Amino acid sequence: MTEEKFIKTSINLSPVDAGYIDILVAKGLFASRTEFMNYAIKKELEHHELAIDGFVAEQEHQQATQHGGELLIGSYRYDDAEILKLFQQHLIYKQLIVVGLLNLTAVTNQAALFRQIQAIHVFGKFSASPTVLAHYRGRSI
Predict the structure, then answer these.
(1) What's the number of CA atoms in the CB half-sphere (13 Å) around residue 119?
(2) pTM of the entire structure?
(3) Rounded Cα gap, residues 46 and 101, in angstroms
């Protein structure tokens, strides 16, 4: 299965702000509103890079001192075989924190999943069955 490279989101803009963006597009500075939004978001994330890096470092420190946690950055897909590997390696995650995409839709053995990963928090997109989503709702950091 190919993982998504982008997450679709929508925003509400005032008509004036949308008009300003349309002027920039009309002048050829951006190919589209989407290109402008991607550029603006990247610039804003760069502006807040210290805060993001501080959060990641704090989470890594907490995971190192509170055994049984894991911080992952990127796109991750687990299936029953991956959950079985965790079991065989005697890994039980008290909490799994993902910055990016976590896809658990291929997991069919939910009891094994719930046993191996006790809590999940995703900053980004979390794809899973309704049962898995319901189980982990309220069990995150």
Answers:
(1) 12
(2) 0.67
(3) 20
Reduced 3-state DSSP string for 25-83: HHCCCCCCHHHHHHHHHHHHHHHCHHHHHHHHHHHHHHHHHCCCEEEEEEEEEEEHHHH
The dihedral through the CA atoms of 107, 140, 115, 64 has a sign that is positive
Domain layout of the chain by residue ranges: 15-47, 51-136
Picking from 63, 82, 48, the residue whose alpha carbon sits closest to that of residue 121 is 63
- Residue 69's pLDDT is 76
Other beta carbons less than 10 A from residue 38's beta carbon: 13
141 Cβ neighbours under 8 A, 6+ residues apart: 95, 97, 119, 121
Amino acid at 53: D
Question: What are the tens digits of pLDDT across the range 1-43?
Answer: 445 677 788 899 999 999 999 999 999 999 999 999 999 999 9
CA–CA gap between residue 15 and residue 116 (Å, rounded): 49
Is the pLDDT at 140 greater than 60, yes or no?
A: no
